[in-house]
Amino acid sequence: MQHDFDLIIVGAGLAGNCLALALKNSGLKIALVEANSREQLRHSPAGDRALALAAGTVELLNDLGAWRGVADKATAIKHIHVSDRGHFGKTRLAAEDQGVEALGYVIVARDIEQHMADLVEKTDTVCLYQTRVAGLMSGRDAVNVSLKQHDGSSLNVNAQLLVGADGGNSTVRKLLEIPQQVTEYGQTALVTTVQSALPHRNIAFERFTEFGPLALLPVAGKQSAVVWTRTHEQAETLINVSDREFLAELQNCFGYRLGELKLAAPRRAFPLSLIRAESMVSGRTVIIGNAVHQLHPVAGQGFNLGIRDVALLAEMLLDQHERNGDLGDARLLKNYSRQRQQDHGKTIGFTNSVVKLFSNDNLPLAAVRNAGLTMLDHLPFAKQLLTRHAMGLADRLPKLGDRE
């Protein structure tokens, strides 16, 4: 059986669904391929994670018409408090200083994932759930893709362009044999939610320790999402101790700025590493989001970086389509890759530097970084640059959504 599309998107996660929504009124014939069922995605443990959405990301989601339906489930970050445990340095960022309502928002991944999947299913996109990519081959005029459905049947489809948005274990990337550069941090992220005795007042806390950063992100009521980085050995111990022992260590690390903390969700552990694909493009295929880059959670830049991948790709594909051009044109994809590599390099470099600078207790280095934090707190221009970076506004991207 042969089906023809203009574009095939592999992966019905946030990146894949965002791209489908950005192109929904373009007239392009689009197929969205996802290995899991909607039910499996809905109950995935990964849906429990809290996402820190930069203000720039929220702007893009709003352009897509995707923000209004979940805005009431998100918690605004109005202040960011950065500190170094056991040292004097601190920096405070405030939305009001930038003349904005919020620096970003925190939302449970499942809420926004399900909402966006619902929106995509209301478009003309052909959604092929429980369908996996078994093979692909780029030709002169099309990319040919072999699909295997849950009932064992096969489909052979082709398109001008294939977009791999299928996450960190990307099948598309593996089939293309694109190598990855992997940097092991020797750290594991412990993720949970706590209830605090005192209100969080919409403050996101980033507290650096000698073992790695600890973030508490404001969510509903007096709850905060916790992303706590420890060594692998420490994390294994902390994931297995009693709730009381876990909380005692967390409280000792964070302090009592929010009063006494109580667990409000199960604990989960995720090993951390920096993973970056050596190429974004191969033939008539481009990979985006976590298929290309997986970052340390410090500063919460990973998801926001992936959305910027989507924004630029959608804009370039729309321009190409309006000119009746080939979506898989090699020059187009090379230009896209070149532009995105600049953002990837800066964001990954910043994140990696922060991890290395703050995940140790070297006294001379601690003195330098704390002096820097204190100085930053008193330099409005420098603070504004950092705030714009945190808000995802350092590099402006085109608006998504319907065109005039």
Automatic annotation (TrEMBL):
Where on the tree of life does the source sit, at the highest rank? Answer: Bacteria
Please name the GO terms that the record assigns under molecular function: oxidoreductase activity
Q: Which residues form the FAD-binding domain?
A: 6-342
Q: Which biological pathway?
A: Cofactor biosynthesis; ubiquinone biosynthesis
Q: What Gene3D superfamilies is this protein classified in?
A: FAD/NAD(P)-binding domain
- Pfam families the UniProt entry points to: FAD_binding_3
Listed cofactors: FAD
Per UniProt, the enzyme's principal EC class comes to oxidoreductase
Q: What keywords were assigned to this record?
A: FAD, Flavoprotein, Monooxygenase, Oxidoreductase
In short, the EC number is 1.14.13.-
Signal peptide bounds: none
Q: Which family does it belong to?
A: Belongs to the UbiH/COQ6 family.
Q: What name has this protein been given in UniProt?
A: 2-octaprenyl-6-methoxyphenyl hydroxylase
Q: Which gene encodes it?
A: ubiH
